[in-house]
Amino acid sequence: MLILSIESSCDETCAAVVEMGDGIRRKRFDIIASQVGIHALYGGVVPEIASRAHIEAVSRITYQALKEANVTLDDIDVIGVTNRPGLIGALLVGLSFAKSLAAAYNKPLVPVNHIRAHTAAAYLAYPGLEPPFTSIVVSGGHTSIFDVRSYTDYVTIGSTRDDAAGEAFDKVGRVMGLPYPGGAAMDRLASAGNPNAIHFPSPAISGDTLDYSFSGLKTAVINYIHNCTQKEIEFSREDVAASFTHAVVSGIAAKLSLALDKTGNNKIVLAGGVAANSHLRRAVTEMAQAHGAEVFIPPLSLCGDNGAMVGAQCYYEFLDGKTAGFDLNAYAS
Ligand code: KG4
Ligand code: ZN
User: Ligand nearest 140 Cα, by number?
Assistant: First the structure.
């Protein structure tokens, strides 16, 4: 089955053609028009600007994805589109465009949840991967753990109570003078520092819960930097990045370990933009090995927002009968 998928929930306009079927999970072509350069001027995503940039890009990149995949809209079986969660204006651009294509070409339209799609990126990278498994989606807007019981049955078993992990990376990066989004630069900086140089609080909420809180950690790091600056004490940016990253990754790994115990699952999927973090990939892999669990982490190209992941999840939603009418709406949460 050939799926055309469209994603516009935040600051990347994405389109892809994926081929899904019995034993087939293949990305035919995937294209991303990133707005990062525009939002970097403001130090974060400006929703109104994001919506306008999606409008400018969505048609062009969708037709480019079809062309590069060597197909036409007539060859497409299903159109999948992210309709939640995300910036409402941004979501509406992709959704309206997908609806109009579905209407004009008489194709089934399938709404896709962005967070489920991040997990589904792992299906493309690991053709043999099947639920049940435990998944954690760590991104700029979300940090949630799921008990994935089937391709379309996701139970949230833990989540952040305030900031997302990516948001913490970006805010700390900003105070360190790194360009937005700071996650990837923090990753590199942390590699040159000592993870045990400074003790920062863990984002893992103590006790039996699987929830996180990143705002206390973020504030502690920002206070540390401000304190040193005010008192004119020299500090190592590498050590701050490494110690902050150590707190993040060990906290995430600790709750994931508890999640494996609670669910009885022996497979873990690590997904979302922050899953690109080299330290997190290593920590989760080591934790899984200690647990005797298998770990599935998509390649970097499938960690951040992309259209192929939406196409992969779209396939399973379609098989489950989740097609929508033209009254389909977008939802911020
Ligand atoms: O999944 P994503 O592309 O968008 C959302 O759905 O939010 O995630 C973007 C987030 C940003 O916060 C970015 O800084 C972070 O992923 N990120 C990283 C790395 N690469 C991207 N964070 C830490 N280390 C990285 N290597
Ligand atoms: Zn995302």
Answer: 1
